[in-house]
Amino acid sequence: MKYKNTALWALSLLMAGISFSAYSCPISDDKKVPDLSSAQYDISVTTIPAVITVGELFKVDLEVCRKDGAPFNGEVTAAATMPAHKHGMNYQPEVIAVEESVHHMEGFAFHMLGSWQFAFQIRENGKTETILLDYDLKPGS
Length: 141
Ligand SMILES: [Cu+2]
Fold this sequence. Notes:
By secondary structure, the chain is α+β, with helices and mostly antiparallel strands. The chain contains one helix and eight strands.
C-alpha cells in the first residue's frame, strides 16, 4: 500500500513537471513568432498536423500569454478566410480543451489552395483583440 502511494505521488509530480515545461507562459523562444503579438498578448500557433493538406481537417493549438505576465483569464475564438476571395472555411472551429496557457482547437479545413488568413480573437475583461496570421497553402501540400 505504501509503495502504491509513493508511485502515485511520483507520477503526479512527473505530470505536473511535463505540463509546466510544455505550456507555462511566457512562450518559449523556439515557439515564438515575432509578428504574432498584440498590445497585450503574445501567441504561438501550432497546426496539427504541421503541414496542412487541402480539404483535410486539422487542429490548432493556440498558446496565449499576457505580456504583463499575469495569467490569461479570457476566451479565444478562431476563424480563417481567403481575403482575396472573400470567403471563409466551410467549418466552424471550436476550442475543445484548455490546458495551462494552451487552447486546443479543432474543426479547421482549407478547401482551396491559395492565401488563407487565420484570425484569432482574444477576449478578456470586456475587450477583444484580433491577431492575424497569413498562411499560404501551396500546391503539393
Ligand atoms: Cu478561395
